[in-house]
């Protein structure tokens, strides 16, 4: 077996890796050196080993009991990004979406500006068809590189996935390694200015200075989760250290001492109240993983 170059940490607390700053420990966490090293590491694992992926730790709630299995952390890794000979953009899974938006704009490629409003990595954006400001990830995807449980890499087209609003389903047990994006050419200065405007809007309307996961709930068809939550008079409602943001009702913030249990209980409470008042069952956008601590 090829010698691994990454870092393997055992019983590693995950709170410092998540944007909510909560979560128990993982049995083991691997920080790969690069894409090839990650493939070798996956090959070394037992085929039935539970594997979880984490980029910037946004859109993710790790429960207080932690994770039984292996967490792959791509933050600061899998960060290659370049323009291919055919003009498409190659982006590895660990590249923050905001960096993708800026890289494309600076190279005179437009339609990726919306990625500046997504507080995660390209891998996470591919996994959930992340969107912001009217744009969606998979609208600009040409194809993707997938890694399977045996460490093999395959190239797949969008038609091999079932893609919808904030949802991407694949028939195979695989993970996103990279994507090739197809974009129109346009004016670089205009694109950069558009990104600046989007970020200013985000700062004004979202609690970017407090620990959160991004949007908690998907928008119901023809409506907005934030409008429903605000109309239920839940802005500022808190359980423990978790609080529905006063700035944007579809954000739950950690006011300083929240546990994952506080956050999950608040998510459940918001769902119940909105269903009771408005008859709408909100669906969570955030991914909840790991084990709860039993009483």
Radius of gyration: 19 Å
Sheet having the most strands? 5 strands, antiparallel
Number of helices: 6
**Cross-sheet strand order for the largest sheet:** 6-7-15-11-12
Q: Give me the count of strands.
A: 20
Instruction: Give the overall shape.
Output: globular
Counting helices, strands and paired strands, the structural category is alpha+beta
Mean pLDDT over the full residue set: 95
Helical residue percent band: 10-25%
Feature tags:
295 residues; 24% helix; five-stranded antiparallel sheet; alpha+beta; 27% strand; 20 strands; single chain
Describe what you observe in this structure.
- The protein is built from 6 helices and 20 strands.
- With 295 residues, it is an alpha+beta fold.
- The strands form 7 sheets. A 5-stranded antiparallel β-sheet has the order 6-7-15-11-12, sandwiched between helices. Strands 1-2-5-3 form a 4-stranded mixed β-sheet, with no helix packed on it. It has a 3-stranded antiparallel β-sheet with strand order 17-18-19.
- Helix 2 packs antiparallel against helix 4 (188-205).
- 42% of the residues are buried.
- The model has no long low-confidence stretch (mean pLDDT 95).
């Amino acid at each position: 077996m090829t010698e691994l170059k990454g870092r393997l940490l055992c019983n590693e607390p995950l709170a410092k890796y998540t944007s909510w700053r909560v979560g128990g420990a993982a049995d083991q966490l691997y920080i790969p050196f690069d894409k090839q090293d990650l493939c070798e590491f996956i090959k070394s694992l037992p085929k039935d080993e539970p594997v979880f992926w984490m980029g910037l730790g946004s859109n993710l709630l790790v429960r207080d009991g932690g994770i039984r299995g292996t967490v792959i952390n791509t933050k600061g890794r899998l960060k290659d990004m370049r323009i291919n000979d055919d003009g498409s953009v190659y982006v590895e899974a660990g590249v923050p979406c905001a960096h993708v938006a800026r890289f494309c704009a600076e190279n005179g490629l437009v339609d990726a500006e919306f990625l500046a409003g997504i507080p995660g990595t390209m891998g996470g954006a591919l996994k959930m068809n992340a969107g912001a400001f009217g744009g969606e990830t998979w609208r600009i995807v040409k194809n993707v590189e997938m890694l399977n449980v045996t460490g093999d890499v395959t190239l797949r087209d969008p038609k091999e996935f079932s893609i919808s609003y904030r949802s991407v389903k694949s028939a195979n047990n695989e993970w996103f390694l990279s994507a090739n994006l197809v974009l129109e050419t346009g004016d670089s200065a205009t694109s950069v200015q558009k990104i600046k405007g989007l970020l200013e809007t985000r700062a004004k309307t979202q609690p970017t200075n407090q620990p959160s996961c991004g949007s908690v709930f998907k928008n119901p068809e023809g409506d907005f989760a934030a409008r429903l939550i605000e109309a239920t008079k839940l802005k500022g409602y808190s359980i423990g250290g978790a609080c529905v943001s006063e700035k944007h009702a579809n954000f739950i913030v950690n006011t300083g001492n929240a546990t994952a249990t506080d956050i999950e209980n608040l998510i459940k409470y918001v769902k119940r109240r909105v269903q009771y008042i408005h008859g709408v069952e909100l669906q969570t956008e955030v991914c909840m993983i790991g084990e709860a601590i039993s009483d």
